[in-house]
Give the backbone structure.
Amino acid sequence: QVQLQESGPGLVKPSETLSLTCTVSGYSITRGYYWGWIRQPPGKGLEWIGSIHYSGNTHYNPSLKSRVTMSVDTSKNHFSLKMRSVTAADTAVYYCATIYDGAYMDVWGKGTTVTVSS
Amino acid sequence: QSALTQPASVSGSPGQSITISCTGTSSDVGGYNYVSWYQQHPGKAPKLMIYDVNKRPSGVSNRFSGSKSGNTASLTISGLQAEDEADYSCCSYAGSSTFRFGGGTKLTVL
């Protein structure tokens, strides 16, 4: 049974880079699926950030594309998110998830809270 | 990329049925049969309840059902139970391997 766990700093300074990792267990990241990042600002709705295939093929939310890079490390069975030039508006709970059949988020991590503040 | 439109809140009494709408455009909801719905209890991660407009994952109660007409998708919960009180969000495939979420709807069981 696939399980996902987000990790990374809980506090990031404005203008710096947010870096998060999602570790996959119970399933090889190379077996398939797209893998995604979704965030939820406090009191607001969910926002899709982007998706990545183990081959490295990526797709990003057009509104975030200029600041976001996703990558995969198959040797560690994890995938990562980097978001540059963060502001307070990037404060959110960040979730990683499987994207099954390219159409829906099937399994979610528990989420990690990232606060952007000096 | 605009979010899909959902009502901020809905409510119902135990045993009743409620419907939550999710309105998009022909570029997302209306253009693809890839609408999914997620249940989220406070402080918890979202849980998939409906996918591909009207399919239920294994383990999800058949009290939950989904449908779509034009640019609007709907989630119906019948036989409301106290445990159904949560936030519900819709999501649609929007082409070119991108997704749009709705703003979320808070369901209160009276």
In short: Residues 14 and 106 of chain B are 16 Å apart (CA to CA). Chain B has a mean pLDDT of 97. Chain B touches chain A at residues 1, 3, 34, 36, 38, 44-48, 51-52, 57, 89, 91, 93, 96-104 (CB under 8 Å).
